[in-house]
Write a structure and sequence with these properties.
Elements: E1 4-7, H1 11-24, E2 27-33, H2 40-44, E3 47-52, H3 63-73, E4 77-79, H4 89-97, E5 101-102, H5 107-114, H6 116-125, H7 141-151, E6 155-163, E7 166-171, H8 177-192, E8 197-201, E9 207-215, E10 221-233, E11 236-242, H9 249-265, E12 270-278, E13 284-290, H10 297-304, H11 308-316, E14 333-340, E15 342-343, E16 349-350, E17 357-359, E18 366-370, E19 385-393, H12 396-409, E20 411-413, H13 419-427, H14 429-433, H15 440-443
Parallel strand pairs: 1-2, 1-4, 2-3, 4-5
Antiparallel strand pairs: 6-7, 6-8, 9-10, 9-12, 10-11, 11-14, 12-13, 14-19, 15-16, 17-20, 18-19
Bound molecules: ligand MV4.
Residues 131, 156, 163-165, 200-203, 206, 208, 232, 235, 277, 287-288, 438 line the site of ligand MV4.
Length: 451
Amino acid sequence: MYKKILIANRGEIALRVIRACREMGIKSVAVFSEADELSLHTKFADEAVCIGPGPSNLSYLNTQAILTAAEVTNADAIHPGYGFLAENADFADMCANHSIDFIGPDGRMIDSMGDKASAKETMKAAGVPVIPGSEGILSSAEEAREMADEMGYPVILKATAGGGGRGMRVVYRGEDVAMFYGMAQAESGTAFGNDGLYLEKYIENPRHIEVQLLGDSQGNVYSLGERECSIQRRHQKLLEESPSPVVSEALRREMGEAAVAGAKRVNYVGAGTIEFLLDKHGKFYFMEMNTRIQVEHTVSEEVTGYDILKGQIACHAGEVLPDWLGDMKLRGHSIECRINAEDPAKNFRPSPLLIESVHFPGGRGVRVDSHIYSGYQIPPHYDSMLAKLVVHGHDREEAIDRMIGALKEFIIEGPKTTIPFHIQLLENNKVRKGNFDTHFLESFKYDPNRE
Ligand code: MV4
């Protein structure tokens, strides 16, 4: 097992990794920017090393500074958390060249899943259902037009280097294919340095459902159930839950088996997620694979009772997963609300202010993963998530009621937050009935005058 892990991240996920390390008897090393000197990960890790000024490109993305910190502290592995360097193939390769374990897949795996068209072909070859469309990259706008005319509209053009909603164009009429093709190609060339596009039938009003996977170095891969992530705003998830209110026991087994087959095909090791779109006929299709621990792994932990962070570290250290993970039953229902320092009355404008005071909710089935404290100054350089409020109940209704109670107990003085937005969301009838899709928030009306 590792003796010391350096955490190349900040905020709640850095604390999450520190806690897992502590329970596993592993020493932790924090790296921090000048803006994070007073952050909790800096205080709670066994050691802390400053890696540069506040802006991310000078600190949390500074691969040389991070590797140097790992070398001077004698760390044997680096945990990247999510965001920052978590899916940076060059950094994974650099770690390997320095004989430091990167707690994530190797550079080749990151690259092959980062290229969305090739990831899709790989999954298709493994028998995972994929959305009908082009095989690999399109060679011209004319090819796109012919294919779209044949399969019928609407279709969607996607940047192969995109993902997470970036570089996509929905096309409803043949006359528009050429123009949208040109726009998407130019944009993705500029944004990603790769202008490859592929085409798919556009699935209207799908749900976003993803399967949590964990694989060990012996070739065992297990599904830890699905998460419902359809409540998103501009591709930022706001609320996640497990299980999905629309996934039956039979569908769960089918999606889990498909995801496991996909991950086994590429010899996947560690924590990973396969994202699916579920259409209104109950058919699911591969969308993307994420090769990192995700923000919302917590809801899967609550319903499986399994510590995914510790499992992820153990897998990279060469331990074999227990075989009972293969017949995991989900217990009860878990929901996560992302509490962001954003003003929901002002188009979710960031509000990076001083936390004048904070009170965390508590009680049975309430978990708060957060790095904030009274007197904490939110740095302006990073994302705006302040806390993940996670509840667990014996069923969905209890979880929703428990979440509303916890949200009402959660007091944050200083910045504007998404807390009041979440209360109204969970009081909405469609949300309570589980009747929503990925477009739900586009029409949801938040009332800033209701308390
Ligand atoms: C789609 C789609 C409909 N049909 N592909 C958005 C994120 C990126 N991973 C792919 N996305 C989509 N791909 C086809 N063929 C609809 C979306 C989509 C979406 C997906 C998941 C969650 C929220 C979304 C919001 C808008 C569009």
